[in-house]
Amino acid sequence: MATEILVPEVSDGVTEGTIISINVSVGDKVEADQTLLEMETDKAVVAIPSPFEGQITEIKVAEGDTVAIGAVIMLGTAGGAAETPAPESAAAPEAVAEPETAPAPSAAVEAAPAPTPEPVPATPTAVPATRHPATQIDLTAVRSGDMVAPAAPSVRRLARDLGADIYQIQGSGPAGRISEDDVRLFVRTAMQNITGGSTTPSVTGEFPGLHAQRPLPDFTKWGPVTHEPMSKVRRITADAMGYAWSTIPMVTQYDKADITELEVFRKEFNGKVDPAGKLTMTAILVKVCAAALQAFPHINSSLDLVRSEVVIKNHYHIGVAVDTPGGLLVPVLRDADKKGIESLAVELNEVATKTRERRISPADMEGGTFTISNLGGIGGTAFTPIVYAPQAAILGVSRAEMEPTWQGDAFEPRLRMPLSLTYDHRIVDGADGARFLRWICQAIEKPINLVMKG
């Protein structure tokens, strides 16, 4: 009897992924833990291994398919002890529900402008709109291309039953996943806006408002264009940055650190060690920032507006932005306060390599309390990084340059590195932001400050 191979749970909060490569074919013999396919999830590529040694008899997915955690991706026969196959009664509902992933929303969108398919929801909407024409909201479908709403078939069915356009609903779950509560809240809020009822959302979390974009003009009127689909990394980045920019009042503080002596030491150190332990400025900054966050605990925090609290974290996990061909990824170095700079340098080099090769797991990019974005290797004199919610601050690093610096009796050439700190002004005051950044500069210039200051 064939054994079902399912998509395993790869990380907390990950509910689905996109198949980017299939490494086996029907009839192939596989070993236990051999990679069967690679699946792209939220900012990571995960290898799905074979749960047994045996032979692949059927492949149920193709490259480009989006599959949910727990979905059947292949069938195979085990040569040794096979895993217990899932009962056919449990697999049947999934086989029935799966086809709804694409066609169900399409039917909803095509039915919206037609006058006859859904007369029931249209009738109650029309009555309040007449009484309050000024508050009528636009329920026109906003689906774009072949995009499929991130929602289970049952959730899409509920949206259709309630006359709601699933593509206007912003999900509150991981990666914008839409739940039944999101659908009900959307309908309730829409009806309150139409009828003039209370607009206070009866939820205990973030208000999931509408995500809309004004229609783009027809660019082909002015010249040729190329349409390039957004990758999953780019979609998630766009959503995260858009959310942060629209919800966090940010301030950016600028300063410069004199790294003349530090750079001499770094080059001397790198001349004596293995390339795997090469010391980078980013590794040094990870340690410095971990110490600075201990001295300024409110910058290592998150704002909870629902409970009117500031959540101060007593752990120091530093995210480091890594430039990859697929987009910007941010792996996290955990417990940076408990590790030496040499250990952090080795770990950072390993993590950066894994990230660029897309071998990083989603769990390796979760739980960061502060982020560093170093563009010094590319260039530029300064930039304003965007805070990565729900963190409170991010440090930007630009290319160091020799500058004439007054030393009390004469100018001397000194190597100075521009730093920019962007922070959530709801948590961090300007004075504290300036002190925090100056603390970092002083710790870089005179490392003895790392143990002198607290």
Write the SSE topology.
Blueprint: E1 3-6, E2 16-22, E3 29-30, E4 35-41, E5 44-49, E6 54-59, E7 66-68, E8 72-78, H1 88-97, H2 103-111, H3 119-131, H4 153-161, H5 180-195, H6 232-247, E9 250-258, H7 260-270, H8 281-295, E10 301-304, E11 309-312, E12 318-320, E13 322-324, E14 327-329, E15 332-333, H9 341-356, E16 370-374, E17 393-397, E18 401-406, E19 411-424, H10 430-445, H11 449-452
Parallel strand pairs: 12-16, 16-17
Antiparallel strand pairs: 1-8, 2-4, 2-7, 3-6, 4-5, 6-8, 9-19, 10-11, 12-15, 13-14, 17-19, 18-19
Helix pairs in contact: 8-9, 8-10
Give a short synopsis of this structure.
By secondary structure, this protein is of the alpha+beta class. It is 30% helix and 22% strand. The chain folds into three domains: 3-99, OB fold (Dihydrolipoamide Acetyltransferase, E2P); 103-195, no CATH class; 233-452, Chloramphenicol acetyltransferase-like domain (Chloramphenicol Acetyltransferase, 2-Layer Sandwich), CATH 3.30.559.
